[in-house]
# Entry
Amino acid sequence: MIPYGRQDISKDDIDAVISTLTSDYLTQGPAVPAFEAAVAEYCGARHAVAVNSATSALHIACMALGVGPGDIVWTSPITFVASANCALYCGADVDFVDIDEHTWNMCPEKLGKKLEQAKLTGRLPKAVIPVHLCGQSCDMAAISALAREYGFKIIEDASHAIGAEYASAPVGNCAHSDIVVFSFHPVKIITTAEGGLCTTNDAALAQSMQLLRSHGITRDSNLMTHQPDGPWYYQQVSLGLNYRMTDLQAALGLSQMSRLRQFVMRRREIAARYDHKLRNSGLQLPTLIDQAVSSWHLYVIRVNPDIRLKVFEGLRKADIGVNVHYIPVPSQPYYRSLGHDASLYPSAMNYYEQAISIPVYASMTNENVDYVVDQILRLLEENR
Ligand SMILES: *Cc1c(COP(=O)(O)O)cnc(C)c1O
# Structure
């Protein structure tokens, strides 16, 4: 079976985890800050806060930005549910901005129109969470210009996009946002098994997120309300959670970071091979904006909705682990129960009827790619 995505674990990765496993610290040791420093440096961000998942990262990012009851957070309908759930965890409401037909990311024009409307009704968002679908950055210059005009915060959900670039700089540098979130789930670009991380250039936000990931507890006397009672002393100064990443995970992450460039380079080669071999297939292939260099977490093809199911089933039967990313969040029963209506997002629904994620991962061979292409072309021919 050729999966749609899979991790790449080397001897060095295994050695790194074993050496941490036999060290003094399985958690709250030196590996977490070392991993954070490596990601911050790679991205060109001032601060990095590692946590146990991107879901947790999104949650503490919302909390640190003060998202709460009475607030509203906007995101893309074409994303994993976690991009929207984080606002609900904070007691805020969620709304969605339809996607662009070509990039499949949140459409800045539709965002602008929705903001104009929201201003009239007094329901402007506290925060907007653009999602870099498949590893392609959203049009962040346009979105951040709107943030300045309408006064909302930006959390980039870059779960797919570590190693990607926007405007000739790494995604994660927070040049156009308050916080950027990465995921290190095994299907993503690099892995810590489970794991996530927030980057920010704002020292106060970083400090707030460091507290939130560990119960709101600090051992830093500068953050305490009075001098420590003694060397044992810590203070809880806010209501946090236990969202810490372990040192085992961070050791794996640090080791994986040394191959990030290599992973993304291979993913780009695979995407270029698909682009070339499928260019005359009649399928809608991924379209990149000028400023974006994708990390290619996913390669999505859009197939005529009349034959999408047949092609999907045919590929699965040919031992190709295709998938669909994503089911529009407002169409999920839970979101429907909150009053959401997916038909308000026609471009997202249109995309959902056509999308198939085909395999792309760093250890995928050219023979694997060619086999996938041959099977797609065969199924298109058979279902003409
Ligand atoms: C994977 C993913 C998440 C959640 O990541 P976890 O690390 O599994 O919590 C959030 N948003 C998007 C867009 C994702 O793809």
